Structure formats: C-alpha cells, structure tokens
Amino acid sequence: MTDLLDEIVEAHGGLARWNELETVSARLLQGGAVWGLKGRQGVLDDVRVTAGLHEERVSHHPFGAPGRRSAFTPERVAIETLEGEVLEALEHPRDSFAGHTLETPWTTLQLAYFVGTSMWTYLTQPFSFTLPGFETAELEPWQENGEEWRRLRVIWPEHLATHERVQTVYVGGDGLIRRQDYDVEIMGGSSGAHHFSGYTQVHGISLPTEHRILPRTPDGQVLAEPLLVSIDLSEISFA
Predict the structure, then answer these.
(1) What is the CA radius of gyration of the chain?
(2) Residue 2 has pLDDT above 90, yes or no
(3) I need a surface site. Which of 3, 90, 125, 210 has the fewest CB within 10 A?
(4) Do the beta carbons of residue 218 and residue 193 sit within 8 Å?
C-alpha cells in the first residue's frame, strides 16, 4: 500500500477492525436525476441495502415490490423472493449495457446491477483498495473550497465491478474521503464527481452518510447541477 492509502485506511477505522466484520447493512434513501432518465424513478427511493465486506455481493430490498430483493455479484444479477426463489436472472450483466448512453432506459436487472456495483464501491472503500489486484499511487494535491486535498489514483482489478477501473479519490487533512471522480462506463462514460459528507462511526468504522454526485468537466471542475444522484444512509449496522 502507499503511505497515503495507509493513512486513509487508519482514518476510517483500520484494517484490523474491518477484518473482524463480514457485512454492512443500512437504510438507503436515494434521489437525483439519473433514476428518471433511466425510467426507474421511485423504485429504490427508500430501501435497505446489505453488502459483503470481503467479496463483491450486494442485496437491496424491497426491490420493486414487497417480498422481492436483488442479488448482485459481478458475474450474475437476479431478482428473488425473500425465500430465495429466483424470479429472473442475468449472467454477465455488464455486457448488456453495450452502446448505452446517459439516457438509455434500464431493465429491472440492469438497475439491480448498477445499484449493486455502486453501493459495494461506496460501502467498502477504502478497505477494498487493500484487496489483491488493486493498484494505488498518490497524485499531486488539489485545491477545493479553500482546502488542499491529497489525491489517490486507484486502479481496480478486472474481476471486480465498479464504474470504471481508474478512479481518483480526494482526501481531507483528517484522512477521510471527501470526493471521488469516475466516468460511468455503463452510462456512455458520463463523468461524475462524487462528494462524501456526514461521517459517522459505527462499530469502530467511519463512513459517510451523505453522498451527492454531480457532473464533472474534463479539467476536474464540478458543475452545480443537475444533481445526478443523492444517497442518504441511516440505521447502519455491521455484523
């Protein structure tokens, strides 16, 4: 790990504590323009999300109807009953996004894939960056809102699913992540600047409860609108 990654991991609770835990669950409130653009407004406004910490798997429930949940892994996504009966499933779901733009509507399974990979990314970092296959390097610092933020380039391994393999993480003086830049490949490479705030500590782990994703220009400047995605977490628990 880089020195900066070491500092980030310690600021968020430390790898030793993280490795004692297996799953995280939270109430999830979501808003923003993306859901309407994709024809999925209101489907996941208020749900619970559960994610594995050491392998990429996520479930949202209820998913579209009472008694239904999603089951996401990088290579397969499904909609199930709460008893585990599979209602529909898709193997190699990322392939189904070929040719998509920001405005291309999503199927139910494509929505399940997007929110699965998104929430695993957000709920497990920075600890996920220590897994085998990740590469990190510190970049030059960045000035924003009167502060100087250190920056970490993160390259994801190919076997894990996320927005794009190369992302940039911005870190405050306290070691907590303030912003993350990525282009969403499955939305035609749409550029986003993801801001994190409202940090709280649960079971010794510090994580943000407020997420706001805005458009980003090619030179890294953030546009004030439209608000692409808002995410608010509460009732967080680890097991």
Answers:
(1) 17
(2) no
(3) 3
(4) no
Burial class from Cβ neighbours inside 10 Å (0-12, 13-18, 19+) for residue 71 reads buried
pLDDT beyond 80 at 1: no
- The CB-side HSE value for 221 (13 A sphere, CA atoms) comes to 5
- In this predicted structure, what is the pLDDT of residue 145? 84
**pLDDT, position 184:** 97
Q: State the Cα–Cα distance between residues 193 and 222, nearest whole angstrom.
A: 6
Arithmetic mean of pLDDT, 213-239: 97
* pLDDT, tens only, 106-149: 999 999 999 999 999 999 999 999 999 999 999 999 999 899 99
What is the C-alpha to C-alpha distance for residues 133 and 129, in angstroms, rounded to an integer? 9
Task: Name the band, by pLDDT with cuts 50, 70 and 90, for residue 48.
Answer: very high
Among residues 192, 238, 227, 209, which one has the least CA distance to residue 28? 209
Beta strand extents in the chain (DSSP E only): 23-31, 46-52, 58-61, 68-73, 76-81, 86-91, 135-144, 147-155, 166-171, 177-184, 190-202, 205-215, 229-238
- What are the backbone angles phi and psi of residue 189, rounded to the nearest 5°? 80, 25
Distance (Å, rounded) from C-alpha 181 to C-alpha 111? Answer: 21
Instruction: Assign 3-state DSSP to the chain and report helix, strand, coil percentages, each to 5.
Output: 20, 45, 35
